[in-house]
Amino acid sequence: MSKKKKDVNKSVKDEPPGILKGGAEIAIETRLRLYRTMYECRVLEQRAYDLFMQNLVKGTSHLALGQEAVASGFGTAMRPDDYTFCTYRGHNHTYVRGVSMVSILGELMGRECGLLRGKGGSMHLTSVEHGAMGSYAIIGAHLPVAAGAAWSAQYRGTKQVSVCFFGDGTTNIGAFHEALNFAVIWKLPVIFVCENNLYMEYTAIQDVTAVEHPAADRAEAYGLEPIVIDGNDADVVYEAASTAYAKARDGGGPSLIEAKTYRHGGHSRADPGKYRPDDELQAWLDKDPIPMYRERLVGLGIEESQLKEIESETDEMVELATEEARNSPSPSTDIAFIDVWADGGASWRN
Fold first, then answer.
1. What angle do the packed helices 304-327 and 101-108 form, to 10 degrees?
2. Looking at domain 27-321, does it have CATH number 3.40.50.970?
3. Could you read off the pLDDT of 115-125 as tens digits, one per residue?
4. In whole angstroms, what is the distance from residue 129 CA to residue 80 CA?
5. pTM for this entry
6. What is the per-residue DSSP string for 172-241?
């Protein structure tokens, strides 16, 4: 008999998710951290957009405005030594691991202060020091790599967990199925998180996928529990993440979580997103995770002044980070051939 799908919010099948009950056991301190992290992610992404429009961000960029609850929930529940693997839409996932706003904005602008001294840009943010093991521009490429990192942690007995974020379009890529298969066979401590924002680049995922839930509906084929969560609800994301982390650390193997969410803008800065119905877009804007969570905190008795202080501190932080990044010089051309080959130079190795 088929397992019953674990759908934390039944309404996500038919409409954007709403405010959920639950999270009663989450401490107020943790809730405030979730809110602060979401708000910081929002202003960081908005500033990235502003800088792009000023022609200060070279190349394109893929923003996660509207998807902050996923990065915040998983990032807050993580251990500092866990591993994060994400896509080119990875500013927030990198930031929540402890990477500074200055180094992220600097990287986007190609400055010396950038996380990779300007060599990686928006789509390749990486900080091994912080457990941010790379942003991958090749769809699905990082899933087997995340499984490999989990295999290493399992072999070393460190209890580290590898977390791999990807979009809904990745579920139709071969690497998705290969990584899931081996993760289950070897009971790897890895969590696969599908950020289902309903669209691939310009195409609705439902138009090219045989199942309703592109990730969760494939889970049972690999012996995994099908899990669909409200990806716009930070409490729900945090609880699902905490459960999956505990399972992985206890030797219970991988989890596959489909988080229903929505990007407020187009696929990239070159995409106005006009293919999305106006009523659909508005419905999801009404379910913006940040004002929704702010309202919940006020309802729980958190003082408005405390939330405004968080917002004010964050607004000031992004302004200072922007100025520092703007004033950072462009990197020297001497670094062009550094970190290209294993010997640190441009010469071929025999």
1. 50
2. yes
3. 999 999 999 99
4. 10
5. 0.90
6. GSHHHHHHHHHHHHTT-SEEEEEEE-SBSSSSBGGGS-SSSSTTHHHHGGGTPPPEEEETT-HHHHHHHH
